[in-house]
Amino acid sequence: MTYLDYQATTPLAPEAFEAMLPWLRDQHANPHSPHRPGRAAKAAVEVARERVASLLPAGGRVAFTGGATEALNWAIKGTTGAIVTLATEHAAVLDSVAAEAARGRPVTVLPVGADGLVDLPAARAAIGPGTGLVVAMLVNNEIGVIQPIAELAEIAHAAGALMLCDAVQGYGRVPIPDGCDMVAVSAHKIFGPKGIGALWLRDGVAPAPLLHGGGQEAPGRSGTLSPALCAGFGVAADLMVSQQEADEALVDRLWEETMAAFAAAGWTLNGAAKPRYHGNLNLHRSGLDVGRLMSDCRDIAFSAGSACASGSGRSSHVLRAIGLDEAAARSSIRIGFGRYTDPDAMAGAVDRLIAAAVAQR
For a surface tag, which of 13, 85, 237, 264 has the fewest beta carbons within 10 Å of its beta carbon? Predict the structure, then answer.
């Protein structure tokens, strides 16, 4: 199997796996207990917290969550005031915003251009007095374009609003602007374990709790933390620092080679080529039957869109937001790659995808 679905999830780094093992096999203490084993577990959690924070802006704190979906829900539902967000956001944002709208909170969803980027003058016109929260994704999970988060944060602050950045796809890969007030991240998108994420909160920012109980995580997130998951997350974050140059070089090489192959075969890139994270290729080919392509290439793991919307029967809301019609949206595929992708295996997989698409005609 050639795995080319890194936006859905990444392979678990062997180093993260090894860091988790002692806490799964030998050390079972609750990190919130005051006895010696509990304090040891707490120490492991705090080491992981520092490692995760090292990839985030200074002047804030990391609160562990059950994943980025929880972090985004907490940040959105724990704040007040009108919300401004983008049409290409992840479902965890758009559905949370819709839930807030149903409760009477004013919401504005800004369109994006054909390149997938927000129009800053339109954002400036929409973000004004009464706006409490601006939400935008750093790197889009479907088309990989990089939004102008720093500029959006500046506009938000001028209006007295908070800036929430969904940095799940960009964390450790793309610098996170200092202007953010809250940042949501996830371990399993950086070669860490599933089931843990974090919400970074600028000093002084304290959204109301989403989960009530023991209040173990400041500023009030309740639930017993898993030292194993925290440890795996921390080591994965450390590796994003130590492997940064090698990861970036590999991704850039694969982007150039793969993009050239698809372009020569008549495929079209969805969204802007710049600014974009190069580990994401989203392309369409007129008349392509994606379901048949997946059936013909069962030993290649790629995507027809967000894994979170898989099986919904809907075409990608992101592709429709950038102006693709229903046929083009349904004739698109997403390929994601990174640290553990073998270049030769990927080249062979791309050749097979191209040949299988041609064979459909």
Answer: 264
Segments making up each domain of the chain, as ranges? 2-9+244-359, 14-242
The DSSP H or E segment spanning 304 is none
CATH fold for domain 2-9+244-359: Aspartate Aminotransferase, domain 1 (3.90.1150)
- pLDDT 10s digits, 37-90: 999 999 999 999 999 999 999 999 999 999 999 999 999 999 999 999 999 999
Both tokens assigned to 349: 């997989």
Cβ contact 134:127 at 8 Å: yes
Mean pLDDT of the chain: 96
What is the maximum alpha-carbon separation in the chain? 68
Tokens standing for residue 54: 């090292």
Residue 161 to residue 82: CA distance in whole angstroms = 9
Distance CA 62, CA 53 (A): 6
CB 201 within 8 A of CB 79: no
Catalytic residue among 180, 230, 297, 308: 308
> Could you give the residue ranges of the DSSP H alpha helices within the chain?
14-25, 36-53, 68-77, 91-102, 120-126, 149-158, 227-242, 244-264, 290-296, 317-321, 326-329, 343-359
* Residue 3: strand pairing partners: 301
The domain 14-242 is placed in CATH, from the list 3.15.10.40, 3.30.2000.30, 2.30.22.10, 3.40.640.10, at: 3.40.640.10
The 10 Å Cβ neighbour count of residue 66 is 17
Distance CA 126, CA 110 (A): 8
Contact 210, 77 (CB under 8 A): yes
Is-catalytic flag, 308? yes
Q: Tell me the two tokens of residue 324.
A: 């693709």
Instruction: Extract the tokens encoding 138.
Output: 């750093």
